[in-house]
Amino acid sequence: MKKYYEFIPVSGFKAAGVYCGIKKDKSKKDLSVIYSETKAVSAATFTTNKVKAAPVQINMKNINNDNTQAIVVNSGNANACTGEKGFDDALNMISTLADELNLSPDEVLVASTGIIGVPMPMEKIIPGIKEAASTLSPIGFEDASKGILTTDSSTKTVSVEFTIDDKSVVISGMAKGSGMIHPNMATMLGFILTDASITKKMLQKALSDSVSDSFNMISVDGDTSTNDMVIMLANGKSNNKIINMDNGIYNKFKAALDIVNVELAKMIAKDGEGATKLIEVNLSGGKSKEDAKLCAKSIITSNLVKSAFFGSDANWGRVLCSMGYSGGDFIPEDVELFFESKKGKIQLVKNGVGLSLDEKLAKEILLEDYIKIIVDLKNGEYSAKAWGCDLSYDYVKINASYRS
């Protein structure tokens, strides 16, 4: 498999990104369209927040349709908590794109991200959709990846090329997310395309399982958004033998999808609002998969842990404390804990007890911008990974004036 940190064009797909006037800054694109020239099967996962934006509620229904050929996305306005008018606006976005591409509205999905509770400026969005539809291109994904961003500092794109039955297959993904990020998805949108031939049932299985170990294992600030979704389309243009069961070929496809989703998840975690460091938790020795995930998630979501890493303070007690209230089953007296970066690796805890600490080495390790927290529960064979970032002064500054 070949991995690329860019969006490699996928056979049969086109995209466009434009500025239509939702955002104040005219240099920032704010509307994107993704289009499959042929019918595609689709799969999705959605936010667990009870307060769901209109596009989420509509897509939760439309994702069950046999085919999907297009997605329209706007940034700068979440279309959440906007009442019946918000639903009508989302449906209007769908019908406008459907008319432009000669599709049924049932074949179009919609996504929004941005400020909550503000009416959609449809007088700007409708012309924007028409412009994007008229400029669709196989090389339009760079612009499309920009049109979905809000407070992100950069685009997030990953692609993997591999073979199935001697047929070249591509999976390419783009995502946005920087704040309001918490396990069980985040203020994030993800759009993943593939030319693989796969049934809708197996595509949904692959995506759901992959999201569980990627996007659902990141945290920036502990807030789960109203608009989160990951949508995947597969149009079968690679002409491989259709993947219709859980076998070796499916596992190969799933492994490629995992690479895309994990890398995108890490990019979101690293780009947390105000973040200076990417933190990765590698936890092993869990009694069960659930125990391992609970402990790993709890570490990465702890504001005290995140604050300590911002200050490059080797306050390992906060790590053990966060595991203790996670709900995961483990024996504290068995735990071993390490911190690691490119500056080295240091053990801080053995058999649940703190070791004599080389403060100088610990500081050097924690001053790096990519740090691993390595935990061995020594209580089983299950493992989990989670990703997050430090919590800085700038996070408060950004979110204190988000609407302005």
UniProtKB/TrEMBL annotation:
<comment type="pathway">
    <text>Amino-acid biosynthesis; L-arginine biosynthesis; N(2)-acetyl-L-ornithine from L-glutamate: step 1/4.</text>
</comment>
<comment type="pathway">
    <text>Amino-acid biosynthesis; L-arginine biosynthesis; L-ornithine and N-acetyl-L-glutamate from L-glutamate and N(2)-acetyl-L-ornithine (cyclic): step 1/1.</text>
</comment>
<dbReference type="GO" id="GO:0006592">
    <property type="term" value="P:ornithine biosynthetic process"/>
</dbReference>
<keyword id="KW-0963">Cytoplasm</keyword>
<dbReference type="GO" id="GO:0004042">
    <property type="term" value="F:L-glutamate N-acetyltransferase activity"/>
</dbReference>
<keyword id="KW-0012">Acyltransferase</keyword>
<keyword id="KW-0055">Arginine biosynthesis</keyword>
<feature type="binding site">
    <location>
        <position position="399"/>
    </location>
    <ligand>
        <name>substrate</name>
    </ligand>
</feature>
<keyword id="KW-0028">Amino-acid biosynthesis</keyword>
<feature type="binding site">
    <location>
        <position position="273"/>
    </location>
    <ligand>
        <name>substrate</name>
    </ligand>
</feature>
<feature type="site" description="Involved in the stabilization of negative charge on the oxyanion by the formation of the oxyanion hole">
    <location>
        <position position="113"/>
    </location>
</feature>
<keyword id="KW-0808">Transferase</keyword>
<feature type="binding site">
    <location>
        <position position="404"/>
    </location>
    <ligand>
        <name>substrate</name>
    </ligand>
</feature>
<dbReference type="InterPro" id="IPR042195">
    <property type="entry name" value="ArgJ_beta_C"/>
</dbReference>
<comment type="function">
    <text>Catalyzes two activities which are involved in the cyclic version of arginine biosynthesis: the synthesis of N-acetylglutamate from glutamate and acetyl-CoA as the acetyl donor, and of ornithine by transacetylation between N(2)-acetylornithine and glutamate.</text>
</comment>
<feature type="site" description="Involved in the stabilization of negative charge on the oxyanion by the formation of the oxyanion hole">
    <location>
        <position position="114"/>
    </location>
</feature>
<dbReference type="GO" id="GO:0005737">
    <property type="term" value="C:cytoplasm"/>
</dbReference>
<feature type="binding site">
    <location>
        <position position="150"/>
    </location>
    <ligand>
        <name>substrate</name>
    </ligand>
</feature>
<feature type="site" description="Cleavage; by autolysis">
    <location>
        <begin position="186"/>
        <end position="187"/>
    </location>
</feature>
<feature type="active site" description="Nucleophile">
    <location>
        <position position="187"/>
    </location>
</feature>
<comment type="subunit">
    <text>Heterotetramer of two alpha and two beta chains.</text>
</comment>
<dbReference type="GO" id="GO:0004358">
    <property type="term" value="F:L-glutamate N-acetyltransferase activity, acting on acetyl-L-ornithine as donor"/>
</dbReference>
<keyword id="KW-0068">Autocatalytic cleavage</keyword>
<feature type="binding site">
    <location>
        <position position="187"/>
    </location>
    <ligand>
        <name>substrate</name>
    </ligand>
</feature>
<dbReference type="Pfam" id="PF01960">
    <property type="entry name" value="ArgJ"/>
</dbReference>
<comment type="similarity">
    <text>Belongs to the ArgJ family.</text>
</comment>
<keyword id="KW-0511">Multifunctional enzyme</keyword>
<dbReference type="InterPro" id="IPR002813">
    <property type="entry name" value="Arg_biosynth_ArgJ"/>
</dbReference>
<feature type="binding site">
    <location>
        <position position="176"/>
    </location>
    <ligand>
        <name>substrate</name>
    </ligand>
</feature>
<dbReference type="InterPro" id="IPR016117">
    <property type="entry name" value="ArgJ-like_dom_sf"/>
</dbReference>
<dbReference type="GO" id="GO:0006526">
    <property type="term" value="P:L-arginine biosynthetic process"/>
</dbReference>
<protein>
    <recommendedName>
        <fullName>Arginine biosynthesis bifunctional protein ArgJ</fullName>
        <ecNumber>2.3.1.35</ecNumber>
        <ecNumber>2.3.1.1</ecNumber>
    </recommendedName>
</protein>
